[in-house]
Amino acid sequence: IKFCWLARGDEDIAWSLTQGLYDKTASEKLVSHAAGVLIAQEAGAAVADFDGKDIDWSAGPLLRNNRGLFASDPSKVPKLGLVNALKDATVTSEKEYDFRCEK
After folding, report:
1. Which of 18, 50, 82, 103 has the smallest C-beta neighbourhood within 10 Å, fewest atoms?
2. Computed over its alpha carbons, how large is the radius of gyration of the chain?
3. Residue-wise pLDDT tens digits, 34-61
4. What is the rounded distance in angstroms from the CA atom of residue 5 to the CA atom of residue 39?
5. 62 with 27: CB under 8 angstroms?
6. All residues at 6 or more sequence positions from 37 whose CB lies less than 8 Å from its CB, including other chains
């Protein structure tokens, strides 16, 4: 429903990530996002994974070729700006995760 709120203009961004930014595994389920993302795209939303790649809907029941998923209103939250912010946050998250694991 979050993607529908975005399409309706109630939100500027919607995203989904099952693990923390430090986790590079892909475990988002196609059936959980396909319909909502389609509605958001039809309303003009930009859609990508957290690395800025297009979503590979042909990967099967799990979106295993993508890390996370976001949709945004490109007039308010540019895709490239969000991807760069996520890259910076991922680096910090990975460092913090490694530090916690060392304890």
Report:
1. 103
2. 14
3. 999 999 999 999 999 988 999 999 999 9
4. 10
5. yes
6. 3, 47, 55, 69, 71
In a 3-state reduction of DSSP, which class is residue 16? Answer: strand
- CB of 90 closer than 8 Å to CB of 21: yes
Q: How far apart are CA 45 and CA 26, in angstroms?
A: 22
Three-state SS sequence of 72-92 = ECCCCCCHHHHHHHHHHHHHH
On whether the CB atoms of residues 45 and 75 are closer than 8 A, the answer is no
DSSP tag of 23:
-
Whether the Cβ atoms of residue 52 and residue 83 lie closer than 8 Å to each other: yes
Mean pLDDT, residues 80-102: 87
Contacts of 101 (CB under 8 A, 6+ apart): none
Q: Coil, strand, or helix at residue 15?
A: strand
Which residues of 18-97 form beta strands (DSSP E)? 46-48, 69-72
pTM of the model: 0.80
